[in-house]
């Protein structure tokens, strides 16, 4: 773990790459910004999302750098939600852990960037231990509220990036 404050470490690292550095397949320098207000942070996040970035990461400038997960680093991503129909399940790869591995979801949704599109996804993310042990009929044919980060174009149409099960929608 470094004893140097983050902003000093960042300045030193940046000085090493100021001349002649070219982004490569393995290394890419990311723009760094300092903000004094929460409004500046929110404005930067919205600007980055609107230009296609996945999200932002924020930290206090006086924090020291750690080579591990830290609770003072804030990762913010754009999260959207929609309602789709569960049309099937994929069995769990280890039946001892549960009967449901993932839900097969599809439906026509309206996304702020992609417009109105038909999506098809499989997701097991968000399912609890209780959920994966339920009978498939509990899900199949029901409306499901799903969280996702963005819509992506696939060879077969459209899908959701980072889809997560949220809940069954009661009609």
Radius of gyration: 21 Å
Termini separation: 52 Å
| Spatial order of the strands forming the largest sheet | 5-4-3-6-9
Poorly predicted segments? none
Tally of helical segments: 3
The average pLDDT is 86
Helix content: 10-25%
**How many beta-strand elements?**
9
Question: What can be said about the biggest beta sheet?
Answer: 5 strands, antiparallel
Percent of residues in β-strands = 35-45%
SSE succession: HHEEEEEHEEEE
Secondary-structure content class: alpha+beta
> What global shape is seen?
elongated
What does this structure look like?
The structure is a single chain. This protein is α+β, with helices and mostly antiparallel strands and 171 residues long. Helices cover 16% and strands 36% of the residues. It has three helices and nine strands; from the N terminus they run ααβββββαββββ. The strands form three sheets. The chain has a five-stranded antiparallel β-sheet, with no helix packed on it. Strands 1-2 form a two-stranded antiparallel sheet. Strands 7-8 form a two-stranded antiparallel ribbon. The radius of gyration is 21 Å and the shape is elongated.
């Amino acid at each position: 773990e470094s004893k140097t404050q983050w902003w000093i470490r960042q300045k030193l690292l940046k000085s090493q790459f100021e001349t002649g550095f070219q982004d490569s397949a393995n290394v890419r320098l990311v723009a760094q910004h300092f903000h004094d207000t929460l409004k500046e942070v929110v404005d930067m996040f919205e600007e980055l999302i609107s230009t296609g970035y996945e999200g932002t990461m924020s930290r206090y400038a006086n924090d020291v750098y750690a080579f591990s997960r830290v609770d003072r680093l804030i990762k913010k991503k754009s999260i959207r939600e929609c309602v789709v129909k569960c049309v099937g399940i994929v069995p769990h790869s280890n039946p001892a852990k549960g009967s449901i591995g993932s839900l097969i979801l599809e439906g026509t949704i309206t996304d702020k960037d992609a417009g109105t599109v038909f999506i098809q996804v499989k997701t097991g993310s968000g399912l609890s231990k209780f959920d994966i042990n339920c009978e498939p009929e509990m899900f199949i044919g029901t409306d499901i509220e799903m969280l996702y980060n963005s819509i992506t174009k696939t060879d077969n149409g459209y899908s959701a990036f980072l889809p997560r099960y949220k809940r069954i929608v009661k009609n």
